[in-house]
Design goal:
This is Putative amidohydrolase. The chain is an alpha/beta fold and 464 residues long. The protein folds into 2 domains: 76 residues, no CATH class; 374 residues, TIM Barrel, CATH 3.20.20.140. It has 17 helices and 15 strands. The chain has a 7-stranded mixed β-sheet. Strands 4-5-6-7 form a 4-stranded parallel β-sheet. Helix 3 packs parallel to helix 4, helix 3 crosses helix 16 and helix 4 packs parallel to helix 6. The longest helix has 23 residues. It is globular, with a radius of gyration of 22 Å.
């Protein structure tokens, strides 16, 4: 079976390759075997780098706000190992570029942790955008912070939890830390970005300072926005003019901005975001698993200018970080019910490749995934079916055969070429299990906080 090169999935069929000289320069030294298909690598455009996944430390899927307290049970592990396993898991699936939203809330540790994360990316060989966390409002509860939860907690639980309420560094200190991270990471495969967690966790002053700094430095911004119904209600109260018009007024909206989730966006807000060139990163599995809903992707599609990308958010439908299945899920969820498909294969691949690269600031990347296409069409009677449609129907991580990033092969036949992945997983799990005594003591408090969070939001008018 002749090897194939699918340079523009959804736009044109694959080219049948008869001579390696027909391949892009980045692939010529590796070549393609009979039955192979090469295409530009998709980008995981929103993630959190979970080496230890949330289910593994007992954070069961739930409504977003009730699920968040479970993140307190994340074991204490080496940030380098955590990132190495997370990035390695992606690379083994044939995805060599990711947006990593770092989880640390301690600005004093940010530079060191960022160094560990970028070292992991360099060692594996993936392309990385690092979103540095910025916030100055407490994340426990919207509309008033931890004090709002106090009536729903026992005195003992409140006493135990009150001591964990964080304090946040001044705005200028947080922004300076981002610039320090950027100055320390000059690899062409790494892009450092501002990462306001979300407007519900940022003051107006912080949001305005980020908008100003982004314009000054030309640095991209990556932010969660309007993920859940509770966020929609709270942000409507806080911003009577609307949170999206507010962000536009302060100069926050621009082609330098990507927003994750956007599940609760309204049509007029989608239109404004598209006009400003903002990218929306859809995370269908995470939004279903945390009961946030389905993002209005169709509202973002403009002729000749795809405005959405696709991310795993650290989950995936089977908890396996398989971006190919995530693409399929989005394709099916957004297909509509008319005679003509609302979202096409072209839209999905443009989102995963072209817009994904824009989100990580790597528009000119020449990265390729090699797929065992023979296994996908082993029983096919016709050999001329659109390859993009075949991929969206059958592709999964197990068919990924090779990964070439910036001219270097970082995965071959499902195994990483630079890192012993299995050894890294074993070491990370050993560190996590060593933290079990502390986690066991924390579990009752975390459960109490989750229950209190559920009761608090249930007390809001219109919430069930």
């Amino acid at each position: 079976m002749t090897p194939r090169l699918l340079l523009n999935p959804g736009h044109s069929p694959a080219q049948r390759i008869t001579d390696d000289a027909e391949l892009p320069q980045a692939l010529q030294s590796f070549g393609l075997q009979p039955g192979d298909l090469a295409l530009p690598s998709p980008v995981n455009a929103h993630d959190h780098g979970y080496g230890i996944r949330t289910l593994d430390f007992g954070a069961l899927d739930d409504a977003l706000e009730v699920w968040i307290p479970g993140l307190r049970l994340r074991p204490r592990t080496d940030p380098y190992l955590e990132a190495l396993v997370a990035f390695g898991r992606l690379a083994r699936t044939g995805v060599g570029a990711t947006m990593h939203c770092h989880n640390s809330l301690n600005v004093d540790r940010l530079v060191d942790e960022a160094h560990a994360v970028t070292r992991a990316a360099r060692n594996i060989g993936i392309r990385l955008a690092l979103s540095c966390p910025l916030l100055d409002h407490d994340a426990w509860a919207y509309d008033g912070g931890p004090q709002r939860l106090r009536p729903f907690l026992s005195p003992d639980d409140w006493h135990a939890l009150a001591g964990t309420i964080p304090s946040y560094a001044p705005i200028h200190t947080q922004l300076a830390a981002v610039e320090a991270v950027a100055a320390a990471n000059t690899s062409p495969l790494i892009d450092v970005q501002y990462g306001p967690i979300g407007p519900q966790w940022c003051s107006n002053a912080l949001l305005e300072a980020i908008a100003e700094a982004s314009a000054l430095h030309g640095r991209r911004i990556h932010m969660h926005l309007l993920e859940s119904p509770r966020q929609r209600l709270w942000l409507d109260r806080r911003f009577p003019e609307g949170v999206v018009p507010y962000l536009d007024r302060i100069g926050f909206l621009s082609p330098r901005l990507a927003i994750a989730h956007g599940v609760q966006l309204r049509p007029d807000e989608c239109e404004l975001l598209a006009e400003r060139g903002v990218q929306l990163v859809s995370n269908p599995s995470a939004n279903l698993r945390l009961r946030s809903g389905i993002a209005p992707i169709a509202s973002t599609i403009k002729p000749g200018r795809p405005a959405f990308a696709i991310g795993l958010d650290g989950t995936g439908l089977d908890d396996d970080q398989d971006l190919w299945r995530e693409m399929r899920l989005l394709y099916l969820l957004q297909g509509g019910h008319d005679l003509t498909r609302r979202l096409t294969a072209r839209n999905v691949f443009d989102a995963a490749i072209k817009v994904g690269r824009q989100v990580i600031n790597a528009a000119d990347a020449e990265d390729f995934t090699i797929i065992n296409y023979r296994s996908l069409i082993a029983d096919a009677l016709f050999d001329d079916v659109d390859e993009a449609e075949v991929l969206l129907t059958r592709m999964s991580a197990r068919h990924a055969k090779g990964l070439v990033i910036a001219g270097k092969e970082i995965m071959h036949n499902g195994e990483l070429t630079n890192v012993d992945f299995n050894a890294a997983v074993s070491e990370l799990l050993a560190q996590a299990r060593a933290d079990l005594p502390r986690l066991e003591k924390q579990r009752p408090l975390v459960r109490a906080l989750s229950a209190a969070t559920r009761s608090y939001y249930a007390s809001w008018p219109g919430i069930s």
